[in-house]
Amino acid sequence: MNPTRLSILIYLYLVGSAKFTEIEKALELTPGNLSSHLKKLSELDLVKIKRGFVDVKPTTVISITSEGSKKVREKLKNFRVLLNEIQ
What angle do CA 71, 75, 77 make, to 5 degrees? Predict the structure, then answer.
């Protein structure tokens, strides 16, 4: 999995859901880069993207799906196994 997409999934796994701008700032991504990665993650059903308005401002909220959470747990398990092997 692409490292940036994995970072997005891990971030969402930890916080549940976040505004587009929050993810952008937390992971230091450009809007275009983040948008591209979120599109792919959404196509894979790993995140859900909701667009709407909050206080008359357009807002995009991204949340991790159950499939996305499962993918993060699998990756973390693989990392744990790898770390145990190199210790």
Answer: 115
Place of tokens 């059903």: 45
Q: How many domains is the chain built from?
A: 1
**Entry pTM:** 0.90
- Quote the domain boundaries for residue 47: 3-86
What's the distance, Cα to Cα, between the start and end of the chain in Å? 24
DSSP three-state, residue 34: helix
* 27 in Cβ contact with 34 (< 8 Å): yes
| Both tokens assigned to 46 | 């790993």
- In the chain, the DSSP E strands lie at 17-19, 47-54, 57-64
Among 8-12, 40-44, 81-85, whose mean pLDDT is lowest? 81-85
> Helix or strand or coil: residue 4?
helix
- Segment 7-27, tens digit of pLDDT: 999 999 999 999 999 999 999
